[in-house]
Amino acid sequence: MKIIAAILDAVGASRPYADSRPLRLAEVDLADPRPGELLVRIDAAGLCHSDLSVVNGDRPRPMPMALGHEAAATVIQVADPDAGFSEGDRVVLAFLPACGHCPDCGSGHGYLCGPATTANGQGRLLRGGHRLSEGGYDVHHHLGVSAFATHAVIDQRSAVKIPSDIPPRIAALFGCAVLTGVGAVMNTACVRPGESVAVYGLGGVGLSALLGAIAAGANPVIAIDPVASKRDLALDLGAVIAVPPEEAAEVIAAMGGVDVAIETAGRAFVLEAAYRAARRGGRVVTVGLPNPAEMLSIPAVSLVAEGKTLMGSYMGSAIPSRDIPRYIGLWRAGRLPVDRLLTSVSPLSDINALLDGLADGTAIRQIVEPRSA
């Protein structure tokens, strides 16, 4: 079938992106789903810093690529009658479709699935090859989803069924921002009631982590970001303290450090600051994805002498089929007001201008609705 998708042909476009237009909307061919795959209609897709990191070259990926990885969709066609999905099902899409058979999946760590990670890095689907093409040439998939499009073929393991009454523009947030941020708190750091938490970076993932910390009973929660409007929102959402980065070290040192420091900015120097903020015996969780060339520098002896723990958290150490319904339940109960993170809703045709909002740090979560393009 013919669909419309936002295609990136090369990295490194100059800013503003509204002028350089690194993403082009193109009519491309989408092949039928293979057994174990689904054809879905994209109802809403969120812009994440991981998308921007592909555009600016921080996350090297094969080109051309149809971008987008955080989305809510509706199932249109089911290739495998035993898949547990039906036409019309509403789903949230997860960007790492765990294979279920590798050692990591077998040990309950599907978020580290080797075959899925390899497929994502190569821009293909988990079961091999591409379903997107233009003029007879393959177009690569972004993280198995390629959600900046009217439709997508995905592995069925990328889909998690959700109730039909959740607005797509809210449901989409659970596919990455909430899954990653809340998961970093609840799955990776295992924050306990009464523990102090500092969150570095207040984008969609960072504010989701802040909401997760509050839902977990953390106190106090400290928010750090250079953008004043994001700090104001963090306070409104329940943070006790919100400060710019240049003030964070002094404020946290006066507290004796924090039990848990969570870095979501994707910069090595921010992670170093988060590491210093953790008290003796504290836990440091890094969620951001820096450019591979960035190196981390910390006193090696501190890991032993100060008993600190440094942990990476990919996709919030989540099992999407378990955690997305859990987080939706917390949202329904009013304990995860993720709808407060929604900055704007736009047609897909605005995609390049929306990248500027991500790059300059003013936007939290911008949603595109492809069918309004």
What does this structure look like?
The chain has about 375 residues and is an alpha/beta fold. The protein has two domains: about 1-175 and about 320-370, Quinone Oxidoreductase, Chain A, domain 1, CATH 3.90.180.10; about 190-310, NAD(P)-binding Rossmann-like Domain (Rossmann fold, 3-Layer(aba) Sandwich). It is about 30% helix and about 25% strand. The protein is built from 13 helices and 18 strands. The strands form three sheets. Strands 3, 5, 6, 9, 10, 17 and 18 form a seven-stranded mixed β-sheet that branches. Strand 12 (about 220-225), helix 8 (about 230-235) and strand 13 form a beta-alpha-beta unit. It is globular. The model has no long low-confidence stretch (mean pLDDT about 95).
List its traits.
single chain, 373 residues, alpha/beta, Quinone Oxidoreductase, Chain A, domain 1, Rossmann fold, 2 domains, 7-stranded mixed sheet, 18 strands
Number of domains: 2
CATH fold call of the largest domain: Quinone Oxidoreductase, Chain A, domain 1
Query: Which word captures the global form?
Result: globular
> How many separate helices?
13
Main sheet overview: 7 strands, mixed
CATH class term of the largest domain: Alpha Beta
Number of strands: 18
**CATH architecture assignment name of the largest domain:** Alpha-Beta Complex
The percent range for strand residues is 25-35%
Name the poorly predicted regions.
none
Residues in helix, %: 25-40%
What is the gyration radius calculated from CA atoms? 20 Å
Q: What structural class should be given to the helix and strand makeup?
A: alpha/beta
CATH superfamily of the largest domain: Medium-chain alcohol dehydrogenases, catalytic domain
Mean pLDDT: 96
Span between termini: 18 Å
